[in-house]
């Protein structure tokens, strides 16, 4: 709601953002990130889905209406200009002034730690080479944890010297901007990327991957501003291309597990960067009910893909098989499909499809309700499963067509998941009505039998298929997708 209010206020239209209880901090942070220091808010008491209509009406009249009237008729700092003028980098004027005060120490060349390019607590967004803390490694770790700049694990103190050495061979300008954080207005600078990379334990060779990730975060299509939504969905980076192995990324045994520096540290960097530059903390933008641990980078097995003649995931987004590419999307849950039995694709597919159907629940709201046919679950095949399909002459497209036919659920369950159990589609629609309105393909209404099986995606091409893991194990991994709240976005990695 705050983003809509920002647009209205920018156009000179008074607004009040009606915000659920406990989301007021996120609304304030969102407004500040768009250059509005204070927007009028009206808080609704309790959770709307856990109240009767009578309770919700009573709470709204008793606690919310007066705030709406006051917000529309009273003086607002956002309108008066006292706290709403945007600084050149997108922050509010007050935030910029606070940052200047907090970061006013002269630049120093000795290796004392600098803070991440971050938000409150101050310093708000320190510039390159500015020292904000000094002390022993233990003192720095304690201070970073206390100020919310770390993920709770020990970090490598990002001294000026370390950050400079991290960037030394790149020739990049430290203050070069890769875009803006839509949540805070912070610039996504090369320096901020490197600072958090040092903290996470990344190697300088990983910088091209990190820069590609930062560009994805800046891309409106990805929707980084949704990264703290209540479901706790988390980003997964998928790395493709000939340079991945040389950079130390693991695509074999233990894929998706921490333990390999490249995969682990780059995955950790993403969480730190979202925390320190995008403000994804519980005090601001992270409203996840149950959080996920950060996900390590999934590196596809380029050698297997080349051997069986399959394109990598990045090819679905306009890149060639020899391009170095990072693709990122957000996923709600994941599960192993273990010990798939069968020597032909026809024998294997029903089990894989069952896994995709089992992992898919309320996420169908992204097929209809929260989005329109945005749902794109990910299937990660071990190399032996991919080879079994390819040996039978199956392309990725043919496998996706088979999954489309088998990954289905009863129509009554689909309808309950989007309109009764989870209340994600207004009016609790029947699938026959949705199809009649042109919002889903005809496969969803081949009859009105509630037991008929319907797809979990709108078309076969919506399945995303990757190849990684132990070459001699018949396992797969399935992920449910968070739709437009972190949509698949790919950027070239300049190695």
Descriptive notes:
With 495 residues, the chain is of the alpha/beta class. It has 16 helices and 13 strands. The chain has helices spanning 2-10, 24-33, 53-73, 77-80, 93-102, 137-146, 160-167, 190-200, 207-218, 261-278, 302-308, 345-359, 383-391, 396-406, 411-419, 431-436; strands spanning 17-20, 41-44, 177-180, 187-189, 234-240, 298-299, 325-337, 378-381, 408-410, 453-455, 464-467, 476-481, 489-492. Strands 5, 6, 7, 8, 11, 12 and 13 form a 7-stranded mixed beta sheet that branches. α8 crosses α9 (207-218). The protein is flat, with a radius of gyration of 24 Å.
Which key phrases capture this entry?
single chain; seven-stranded mixed beta sheet; 495 residues
| Average pLDDT reading | 86
Proportion in helices: 25-40%
Query: Biggest sheet: strands, sense, closure?
Result: 7 strands, mixed
**Segments where pLDDT lies below 50 for 5+ residues?**
80-124
Shape: flat
Number of helices: 16
Structural class: alpha/beta
- Approximate strand percentage: 5-15%
Distance between the termini: 40 Å
Number of beta strands: 13
Give the C-alpha Rg.
24 Å
What order do the helices and strands follow? HEHEHHHHHEEHHEHEHEHEHHEHHEEEE
């Amino acid at each position: 709601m705050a983003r809509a209010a920002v647009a209205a206020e920018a156009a000179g239209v008074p607004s009040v953002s009606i915000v659920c209880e406990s989301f007021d901090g996120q609304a304030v942070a969102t407004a500040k990130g768009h250059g509005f220091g204070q927007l009028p808010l009206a808080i609704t008491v309790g959770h709307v889905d856990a109240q009767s209509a009578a309770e919700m009406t009573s709470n709204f009249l008793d606690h919310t209406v007066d705030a709406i009237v006051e917000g529309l008729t009273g003086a607002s700092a956002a309108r008066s200009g006292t706290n709403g003028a945007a600084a050149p980098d997108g922050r509010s004027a007050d935030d910029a002034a606070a940052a200047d005060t907090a970061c006013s120490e002269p630049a120093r060349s000795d290796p004392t730690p600098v803070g991440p390019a971050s938000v409150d607590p101050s310093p708000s967004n320190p510039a390159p080479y500015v020292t904000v803390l000094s002390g022993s490694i233990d003192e720095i770790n304690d201070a970073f944890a206390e100020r919310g700049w770390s993920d709770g694990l020990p970090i490598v103190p990002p001294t000026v010297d370390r950050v400079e050495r991290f960037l030394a061979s790149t020739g990049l300008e430290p203050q070069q901007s890769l875009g803006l954080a839509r949540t805070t207005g912070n610039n996504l600078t090369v320096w901020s990327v490197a600072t958090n990379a040092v903290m996470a334990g990344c190697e300088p060779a990983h910088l091209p991957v990190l820069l590609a990730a930062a560009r994805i975060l800046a891309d409106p299509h990805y929707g980084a501003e949704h990264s703290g939504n209540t479901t706790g969905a988390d980003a997964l980076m998928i790395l493709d291309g000939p340079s991945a192995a040389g950079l130390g990324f693991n695509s074999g045994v233990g894929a998706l597990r921490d333990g390999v520096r490249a995969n682990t540290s780059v995955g950790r960097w993403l969480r730190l960067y979202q925390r320190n530059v995008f403000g994804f903390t519980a005090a601001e933008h992270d409203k996840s009910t149950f959080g996920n641990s950060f996900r390590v980078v999934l590196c596809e097995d380029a050698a297997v893909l080349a051997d069986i003649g399959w394109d990598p995931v990045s090819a679905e987004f306009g890149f060639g098989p020899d391009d170095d590419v990072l693709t990122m999307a957000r996923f709600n849950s994941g599960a192993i499909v273990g010990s798939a039995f069968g020597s032909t694709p026809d024998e294997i597919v029903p089990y894989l499809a069952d896994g995709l159907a089992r992992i898919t629940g309320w996420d169908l709201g992204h097929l209809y309700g929260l989005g329109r046919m945005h749902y794109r679950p990910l299937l990660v095949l071990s190399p032996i499963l991919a080879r079994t399909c390819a040996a039978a002459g199956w392309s990725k497209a043919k496998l996706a067509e088979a999954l489309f036919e088998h990954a289905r659920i009863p129509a009554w369950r689909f309808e309950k998941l989007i309109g009764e159990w989870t209340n994600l589609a207004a009016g609790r629609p029947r699938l026959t009505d949705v199809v009649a309105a042109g919002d889903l393909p005809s496969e969803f209404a081949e009859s009105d039998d509630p037991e008929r099986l319907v797809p979990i995606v709108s078309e076969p091409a919506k399945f995303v298929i990757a190849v990684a893991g132990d070459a001699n194990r018949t396992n797969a991994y399935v992920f449910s997708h968070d739709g437009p709240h972190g949509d698949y976005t790919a950027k070239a990695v300049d190695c």
